[in-house]
Design goal:
Strand content: 15-25%
Number of domains: 2
Shape: elongated
Distance between the termini: 24 Å
Number of strands: 12
Helix content: 40-55%
Radius of gyration: 31 Å
Number of helices: 12
């Protein structure tokens, strides 16, 4: 009975209903878009970390405190990691392989064309650990015949050579000439919003060659592949102990992929909290809109309320009707926001590198927000309507 009366009232006062729902719709769009984009970014980041390879530990040249957000200034300074550390780690039971990485930096040039991939000087073991797939040519090895070989990622290759053949061609890296011996297969990473920082936009040169030409080059990462039967949580202390025999505590740290994702998600969580705070303002404004319009409706419908009370409707019936109206307005606004958000997400996914992810949980959030806003901000107008004196209400009849 109360639901039917609420629907009839909303239909008769459809202009006011739409006006009330607009505020909730705008707030829902803001929340849903930000949540969907955040989930998409989280999925993207997870894929990038998983792309490092399976059963991987990462040795960093500075201390990372997992429970703290304090920045270690040594990340921007000197690395004290050495090949000796990698060799000693390789002897630890449970460790299958180690690889050393150095961020070479600089841009690649072919004639007038330039590309700026993530250039990494790596030992050949990294290719097996990372499970990189070659599309053309081959990876370099310790027995490569080419003096200065380079392996290009899909984005770097397309930028420098387009559809032309790249194998055997020369590219310049910081005024040094390298010969292209391999092209990495594009696994779809080039469509990621992080593609310019992913393994799709990378160039590899041999670590030994780079070190020979740049004696001051430091080791930025030691990648450690361990046996799948080994628990990484038990292996980390062994690596920490081995590294601690030569290095100061602040000069190294060992992270699992889970730790790395945890750090990233912690930063995203802080940003998400700020976003929720900002969008809550929009929700509040939408709720106040519902409350204002409903209060106006109560004043305009005093005669209707008095007639209903005279016909036997109790205060509880009046309260329930007006509260249901407020909830239905909130749901309508959330539904409209959901539809608009889905359309915007589709456009973003089709035209940009942002890939929003709308889940059933997101949909439930949308309708939960509608019900919550309608119930909270509709309670006062509903109570005011229920408390109307039928005698006073009918004076204007």
């Amino acid at each position: 009975m109360a639901l039917a009366a609420a629907l009839t009232s909303l239909r008769e006062n459809w202009r006011q209903s739409i006006l009330s729902a607009v505020g909730v719709a705008i707030a829902s769009i803001a929340i849903l878009l930000l949540v969907s984009i955040g989930l998409g970014v989280q999925k993207d980041i997870s894929a990038q970390v998983e792309d490092l390879g399976v059963n991987i530990l990462i040795v960093l040249p500075a201390r990372v405190e997992l429970g703290s957000m304090n920045f270690n200034p040594n990340f921007g300074g000197q690395s004290f990691l050495s090949p000796e550390d990698a060799n000693r780690i390789a002897t630890i039971p449970g460790v299958r392989e180690t690889a050393m990485l150095t961020f070479a930096g600089g841009g690649l040039k072919v004639g007038e064309k330039s590309a700026y991939p993530l250039t990494i000087a790596a030992t050949p073991a990294w290719f097996a650990m990372h499970d990189a797939k070659i599309a053309e040519g081959q990876f370099f090895s310790t027995t490569s015949d080419v003096k200065n070989p380079i392996v290009l990622g899909a984005i770097a290759k397309d930028t420098l050579f387009g559809t032309e053949e790249a194998l055997g061609k020369k590219v310049r890296l910081n005024d040094e000439e390298f010969e292209v011996v391999g092209i990495l297969k594009d696994e779809g990473d080039s469509e990621s919003m992080f593609s310019m920082q992913s393994f799709a936009n990378v160039a590899y040169v041999p670590f030994d060659t780079w070190k020979a030409n740049h004696p001051d080059a430091q080791i930025d990462r030691i990648m450690v592949q361990f046996d799948p039967a080994t628990d990484p949580k038990t292996l980390v202390p062994a690596l920490e102990k081995t590294l601690g025999e030569r290095l100061d505590y602040q000069q190294y740290s060992v992270l699992t992929q889970e730790d790395l994702l945890g750090l990233i998600y912690k930063v995203m969580g802080i940003l998400g909290t700020l976003v929720v705070g900002l969008t809550s303002i929009a929700l509040f404004v939408g709720g106040v809109g519902i409350m204002t319009v409903m209060l106006m409706s109560v004043n305009e419908r005093r005669v209707e309320i008095g007639i209903r009370q005279a016909c036997g409707a109790t205060r509880k019936d009046i309260f329930r009707q007006f509260l249901i109206e407020a909830v239905l307005i909130g749901l309508a606004g959330s539904f409209a926001g959901l539809v608009v958000s889905a359309l915007v997400n589709s456009v973003l996914a089709a035209t940009t590198s942002i890939k929003p992810l709308m889940t059933w949980g997101t949909v439930a959030l949308a309708f939960g927000v509608g019900v919550g806003v309608g119930a909270i901000f509709g309670a006062w107008p509903a109570r005011r309507a229920a408390n109307q004196d039928p005698v006073v209400s009918l004076r204007n009849l």
